Amino acid sequence: MSARAPRFALVAGEASGDLLGAGLVDSLRARFPDAGFAGVGGDAMRAAGVDTWHDAGELAVMGLSEVLAHLPRLLALRRGLRARLVDWRPDVFIGIDAPDFNLGLERQLKSRGIRTVHYVSPSVWAWRQGRAAKIGRSADRVLCLFPMEPAIYARHGVDARFVGHPMADAMPLEPDRAAARARLGLPSDAPVLAVLPGSRLGEIGRLGPTFLAAAARVGQRIPGLQVLVPAANAACRGALSALLPGPAHTLPAVHLLDGQARDAMFAADVVLLASGTATLETMLAKRPMVVGYRIAPTTHAIVKGLGLLKVDRYALPNVLAGETIAPELMQDDCTPEKLAEAVLAWFADPDAVAALAPRYRELHLMLRRDASHEAAGAVAELVDPRHHVAASAEAPA
Fold first, then answer.
1. What is the pLDDT along the chain (397 residues), one digit of tens a residue?
2. In a domain, 16, yes or no
3. What's the distance, Cα to Cα, between the start and end of the chain in Å?
4. Which DSSP category does 91 fall into?
5. What is d(CA 261, CA 228) in angstroms, rounded to the nearest whole number?
6. Sign (positive/negative) of CA torsion 218, 224, 225, 231?
């Protein structure tokens, strides 16, 4: 191969991956000023200087029926992308999350001698840990957002690095509750409960009525309660609006927000939410929380019966802490009565809330490692310097 500036290919399939990719590109460019960047991304990656051959939105499909409907198009896109990448010959390919699309592409590129990285490990810490070996057959290196993940890969002989979590980098160590309340037009001294039943329509359908009924129960016990309900998008807003004439109509003040989930967390005294990434965000917002979740009983029985679940705790703050710092009410325990009692327990015990602060800060600092810088370092190690001119020897195209 003739000497040239390094090339990096990246594929991100959704908004969160687009932001990760943009941060990684900025950090890689600091190391390789003349490098070329191409692949699949969104506005953030384009702004960072990536030549996006396809938009990230072309990969963003959700749900089995939608995936099946788009499968021929996605397979054709992946075939065309593979051919173009093999021809372009990047030094390193970085698949950002989107494992169903990226791991197969990584495996094909790796077999053709292209170094591959998978950025954002699937949740092998929670279930199907045997996937780690399969991921290792696709990726030369896995970049992990959580500290418990590399050890799982190591047991399967896979090179994995903990780089930290970009959300921990972005969120302040000391959130400003007063400023968040001012932005949302809330009284500074009102009791506030944030309710987040999920960002997908299926979750809202399963959990929304239960969560809002729990909020109504809390409102019966706490005068002047303000309830914040962030909607992730227009479809979610419609689904949540349809639920509000139900049990929540007894609440004195329900604020349905367009986005603004982080402000809702900052402004809240307590957060009631579904299990998922939002629990991590609530932890970083330093707010006490109650976590509820419910899946189809048959699905739950199969997953438990086959031993696919490898954890006793589901919420990320509890997994990271190695103890229960956020009450979890799952399946049959996820009822309005039990959720309300758990929420009321936080409102009634300011000492317990205060005791959370140093633990939350410790976990925040554990994840705050400048993820983009760490990820760029791990990617840069895979670049073969024999193939390239010095950074100063070649002018940008």
1. 457 899 999 999 888 899 999 999 999 999 999 999 999 999 999 999 999 999 988 876 544 445 566 677 788 888 999 999 999 999 999 999 989 899 999 999 999 999 999 999 988 876 667 789 999 999 999 999 999 999 999 999 999 999 999 999 999 999 999 999 999 999 999 999 999 998 888 889 999 999 999 999 999 999 999 999 999 889 999 999 999 876 656 676 899 999 999 999 999 999 999 988 899 999 999 999 999 998 766 655 555 655 555 557 789 999 999 999 999 999 889 999 999 999 999 999 999 999 999 999 999 999 999 999 999 999 999 998 776 654 433 333 3
2. yes
3. 19
4. S
5. 9
6. positive
CA pair distance 166, 104, nearest whole angstrom: 25
Half-sphere exposure of 142 (CA within 13 A, CB side): 33
CATH at 150: 3.40.50.2000
Containing 318, the helix (H) or strand (E) segment is helix 316-321
Q: Yes or no: say if 378 and 172 are a contact pair by the CB < 8 Å rule.
A: no
User: Are 206 and 107 in the same domain?
Assistant: no
Q: How far apart are CA 363 and CA 353, in angstroms?
A: 16
169 falls within a domain: no
What's the rounded Cα separation, in Å, for the pair 307 and 340?
31
For residue 294, the enclosing domain spans 177-367
Q: State the DSSP string of 36-53.
A: EEEEEE-HHHHHTT-EEE
Quickly list DSSP for 324-381: -SS-EEEGGG--HHHHHHHHHHHHH-HHHHHHHHHHHHHHHHHH-S-HHHHHHHHHHT
Strands (E), 13-102: 36-41, 51-55, 92-96
Residues 78 and 114 in one domain: yes
Count: domains in the chain:
2
The helix/strand/coil state of 122 is coil
| One domain, residues 65 and 91 | yes
- At residue 334, φ and ψ (nearest 5 deg) are -85, 80
